[in-house]
Amino acid sequence: MHTKFLPCFEILCLLIHLVTIAFECGTILDMQLSTKVEELNGVGSATASALRRLGIKNLGDLINHYPKRYEDYSKITLIKDAKAGQISIRARLANIKSLYGRKRGLHVTTALASDATGSMHVTWFNQPYRAASIKANAEYFLSGKYDFSGTFLTLLNPSIELVSDFPANTARILPVYPETKGITSHKLRKLLVQNESVFKSVKEYLPQEIIDFAGIGSFADTLRKLHLPNDSQELQEAIADLGFRELFEVTLASQLLRIDLQKYRSRHIKIKESSLRRFVDGLPFKLTPGQKLTAWQALKDMSEATHPMNRLVEGDVGSGKTAIAAIVAFNVIKSGGQVAVMAPTELLANQHFQSMQEYFGKNLEDGEIALLSSSLNTPRRKLVIDGLKTGKIKLIIGTHALFQSYVEARNLELLVIDEQHRFGVNQREFLLAKAARMPHVLTMTATPIPRSLALVLYGELDISVLAEKPPGRQKITTKLISLSQRLDLFKAVIEQSSPTNQVFVVCPNIDSPDQADSISKTEEWLKKHFPNLGYGVIHGRLKAQEKEEVMSDFLNGKFNLLLATTVIEVGVNIVNALNMIILSPDRFGLAQLHQLRGRVGRGQRPANCFLCLNDNEPPTKRLRLIEKLDDGFKLAEADLELRGPGAIYGTRQSGQLDLRVAKLTDVKLVSKAREAAKEFVALDLKLIKYKKLHAKIVYLQKITNLN
Ligand code: ADP
Ligand code: MG
After folding, report:
1. Is 0.70 topped by the overall pTM?
2. Nearest-CA neighbor of 589 among 553, 556, 638, 555?
3. φ, ψ for residue 133, nearest 5 deg
4. C-alpha 693 – ligand 1 centre gap (Å)
5. CA 523, CA 540: separation in Å to the nearest integer?
6. Strand 369-372 vs strand 476-481: parallel, antiparallel, or unpaired?
7. Fewer CB in a 10 Å sphere around the end CB: N or C, the chain?
8. Ligand 1 atom closest to Cα of 291?
9. In terms of DSSP bridges, do strands 69-72 and 173-176 run parallel, antiparallel, or are they unpaired?
10. Residue 17 and residue 157: Cα distance in Å, rounded?
11. Which ligand 1 atom is at minimum distance from the Cα of 284?
12. From CA 139, how far away is CA 90, in angstroms rounded?
């Protein structure tokens, strides 16, 4: 009897076990990353559409929605020890009362919370359902702020959950998410806790070798720890491991690109020293030490390495990058090669054309330098294209778009890319398709890339930094102006204005109806307050030729005030522009504001940049920074710290360099990521085998695109 019973019992246990497994498997299978939010418990159509506003359509999106910060409620405080601040308690509730204060229209629920050590008051405002939902005698976790309400300390508006439930919103480290109307962190946490099994279906995408090398947790585990950390150690691990992943990807992207590039051969270009000396002596100014060094570095790249130069020149606006391009181009042309200079806009291409003509002087004959402009008629364009094919044209200048469609220069040895951040394309692919052989590439940018970011992106190699500006440059004074001072500012600036004291007024957009500071609204405002003022208008919707006309009219002093959008952001050199007024500066990135103000103070006289706030509120920290710092590099570092790398590779680019967790200032993590990327290369791991990683790398290479 006894012996028979045991197996029966065992079979029963086994059955229960199997059922449990089946049940668990069932839930795991149900909770796929692709499971639509509508299919989840507690998500109605209103919640679903609110979630969609956050970009969350399925569970995969949900776990890809990272917390922005955390509140630590993991420690349970005994009531007798409670002090004012954020606390969690474990208690039963009694004396539950619901009151409606007619006077203030406020609904108040009060209760007395007690644990074995004591009691405290609890108050909820405007939660009329609260009283009915509390069970007497049940044990709860309550998390919230313990603070004075009137004369005594009260736990205010706490989150509350049954101890018998698995807590999502109390008694643990609580992630705080970017929210939208209708979706609170509370709700998001609840969804994550309810669907925790989904983390198990997150697939690893890094090679096991790298995981082992770096000693990090699996992707699934890391994401779970990020959203539902059991303690602060788990949270720290999650942040460190995710940060590693991000930095590893960026570093690997740049290292693979570098290796790739080194497979190409390009021509050695000897440094023709005596000719170069003559060329430099013929320039209208004496080179700064930074210009000399940078030009020398580029010349050396091209004369020594067997693979194409891939140098980035970083120099603040007005630091004289064009002259460097001219020197390097001269050396290439002297050796029989052709040079192309790509600019982001027609305006800028035009300006480069003029500068190059000035810098080259007699060193180029008529017809050896050409501008490929969209305003050329067909026969003239054909002439340029033929000139490139035959090799008659040595130096060609144009916009990126034009090159893409037309250039077939047989002998192209050097490509100069100005203001690279304005292009959102992979230039290398384009070059490979068009050029007979890989040319040397010199990229110039006024967007300072902070050292910490450069280290990750480019391993600090092949970057020249122009630290100083040409001598005699005057400081640009930047001032924040509140709305109430605006009219007085305009009066003063306009009164002073003359053909030798010109003004830019920059608007964030052309004619968006809901924005006060559009070009069209500002025109109305100007007409009202300054009815006799003559001014010009320039923005991206004008045709290239129209833009050029406006610019040359401004240059020639036909009017002294130019109302503009950011089309003037890059490069344009108007020596007589002494004042710039930027409207709604909070709508621009710091790097962009810095670029913009670089449009004034291009001559020898001091200049001003006024940032006109939209209200009379105190300005943000960001705007105070730009008022204080006039060094683009310091500003970029500060911006990086405040807003992350998106501020530098920001909205103006096709993509975002999305470091959501990693801190570039974390030197240890950065070097660990670099070591791991080296390991990847050393082990000769095949990127193509890791689909998701491969896709990420391709994307990163595109958006960082100094290739
Ligand atoms: P960037 O492209 O770096 O913003 P540019 O090449 O347009 O700057 O140069 C800005 C201005 O400074 C131009 O008018 C240029 O002629 C002048 N410039 C360049 N180098 C020097 C120098 N070494 N000394 C004096 N002026 C210079
Ligand atoms: Mg320039």
Report:
1. no
2. 638
3. -85, -10
4. 43
5. 16
6. unpaired
7. N
8. 23
9. antiparallel
10. 42
11. 16
12. 7
